[in-house]
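Supplementary notes for students who missed Thursday's class. We covered one full example, reproduced here. Read the sequence, then the structure, then the short commentary at the end.
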Amino acid sequence: MMNVGVIGCGAMGKGMARNLLKAGYSVYVCDEQSVYRQELELAGAVFMQNAKLFAEKVDHLLLSLPSPTILQEVLFGDSGVLNQVRSGSAIFDMGTTDVKMTRRIHALSAAKGIRYLDCPVSGGPAGADAGTLTIMVGGNEVDFLTEKPIFHVIGENVIYVGSSGAGQTVKLCNNMIVAGITSLLSETMIAAEQEGVAPQVLFDIIQQSSGHNRVVDVFGSNLLEKSFDQVLFYLGHMAKDLELYMDMSREQQTPQPTASIVNQLYRAALQQKKGKLDSTAVYSVISNKGE
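Structure (token representation):
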């Protein structure tokens, strides 16, 4: 059976690792800070501290990391795995990162005979646990078709988007849309309440009208209850993705008048120390309240 390595066993990586174990894969984990170590070891995962020995064990490597900086450190640092994994191996970046960097890593990997696919996901920790993630894959199509079975272990909707960086491009666009809708929902909630209409009534009507959207389904309860400490997606992670989107648009020199305003709202939320709250905490920036 295939040996799969996982670097980054947080809320997302933990779910992916468990589903791989359930499917009969041998799973090796390199993450000294994972709070899920005991749980995963009981399920059969093997934790390793030595990056070189870890890389020698695996022929498929999943990276579920929170930022481009950490991704670069893992791949290119003193114990960088890109110099450790064998030729013929595959690396899957399941996080959300920079498009330009992704294409550079893909080229460097190809030169070493390593298949590198950018595979950002949507569905949150619940989707990772259930194995129902949506996975947007960029890279060589032949590599995607070769690796498709492993994606179906951790995801339900597996979509080949295009060449290297295409998966990240789609994910960044998606997250900008989610952030924009969240901001507009916040504004319209406030406007409706000031006119005596309860937010729940507003949301019910939206979901039966042309304004219907998944953001209400996923994040609506946090907005309605203002339960921003119930984290479905960290505001800090969303703000990072919005900055990456803006970087991508600057590379393209395309105007982003609406996206730039949304980005500023989330940047203001970071300045107000809301990064560890749910992304819906942008509501409290818009309402000028400190919930």
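Commentary. The radius of gyration is 20 Å. Residues 3-162 form a domain with the Rossmann fold fold (CATH 3.40.50.720). If anything here is unclear, bring it to office hours.
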